[in-house]
Amino acid sequence: MSSSTLAGRLARGITPRMGAASIKDVAPVGSEMMDFGVEISSRSSSGAIVTPERALGIDAVWSCVRLLSDSIGALPLKSYRKVTGGREDFENPLLQLWPNPEMTAMDLWSLVTVHLNVYGNAYLGKVFDGARVSELWPIHPEAVIVRRVNGQKTYQIRDRAGSPSTDVFTARDVIHVKGMSLDGLMGLSPIAYHREAFGKMLAEADHGSRFYKNQAVPHGVLELDGELGDTAFQALEKRWARAHRGAKNAGKIAILEAGVKFKPLTMSNADAQYIQSRNMSAVEVARIHRVPASMIDASSGQSLTYRTVESDGIHLERYSLNPWMVRIEQALMRDHDLFPGAPDSYPQFLRQALLRSDSKTRAEFYAKALDPLRGWMDRAEVREAEDLPPETVTQTPTQVRKSMAALLPAGKGGHD
Length: 416
Known about the structure:
- By secondary structure, the chain is an alpha+beta fold.
- 39% of the residues lie in helices and 15% in strands.
- It has 15 helices and 10 strands.
- α4 crosses α6, α4 packs parallel to α11 and α8 packs antiparallel against α11 (274-288).
- The relative contact order is 0.12.
């Protein structure tokens, strides 16, 4: 199937490789996308229906996904080609600046990371201008059907009614980034595979809403010496509920009459453990997404020190962010329309931005890196790493050493 057909489905008004219609009509993004079969396949044993939207409503899930997506989206995605003695970067506005008329690079790579952490898959549709890829558009994962036909990976796009299109696309048309997989064809959705855990959290949230709606503390009963008729009973119940139920009525003074007495009841053990259970659920979410619990403000039982915070930062970069970045980089690199010279040309996120330390630590690092004998950087590289403009006059390491020696007291200069 011509990739121009996919381009036409990707964005109205875009001129694709061979003339086409548009893709937003068939591969909607976000709130326009319906949940296909969610209620049947995602009901947990707690009775809660787990959908991506409901799961993201759990504060710990939102925090984990946002931490990962914002961190990756904020990193520059550079393009390099190998040259004799090293590598050089080259401009690639499609990946670095504006992938399409509606999105910035951060918008796109942040959304790709969200899709990976919620659905386990992310898809980018390619729009061509002649033989050149001119735009990249995200396709909602629930709109894509992936199959392997005669040894070739194929994609079909559902329309807004949920029906698969008759058009069949290939890897020439769609860039597919997968998460952890069992078959190499599709990534696994963390939400779907952990729906029991997420279902329990949703049930806890529902319980919490009812818990506080009915005034968490105190619970109690109204006692009377005699019996009330049905009408009087209902009237008393309504009056009490109207005056004292709910958080907005907390602390109000109760006025009792006709021998009515209020007897408070202590909080049950199950209710007392509710907050602790919520915290344990947050730690569980952090574990599912491989995010340090402290970074979503969940208590892991360890006291926070400079060393543990530093360790958590390294953990986030090494075990949480890096695997996702490598998956995105390799999916882009194997697309020969974007990187025809691969593996001699390739994309790479600028990971150094994640590891930027305080000024004192950077100064000590650069001092060692610029050492004339043991160093591995020059001044131009340091200024580039610090996002500073190039110097107008450059000096060789030997010239720098002579200049420094001239400033030292007699007898303490270095040797050439």
